[in-house]
# Entry
Amino acid sequence: MGKTIVTLGREYCTGGRYIAEGVAEALGVKLYDKELITLAAQHSGLSEEVIAASEKQHTHSLLYSLYTLGNDLPLNDQVFILQSRIIKQLAEEGPCVILGRCGD
# Structure
């Protein structure tokens, strides 16, 4: 198999996880979903909780406000850039299915 990278966007309660699992199984490739949060935490020094919260938090939250003090980029932008880099690296390593996050 060549460099087949499948990305699936999703919304809550749409069954995206089941579809992605089926696609990954049919293609015989690895599925990345919440693993991207773990990888981002390992590469950034941020906790998994902070990264997961940044995907859900609006820019007016207390956590967001406290974290962005002294930083040039808002937290959700930093997480987006970090996850984008990780996804590109995973795509270079070989075929995979990326579910949600900023994969699409």
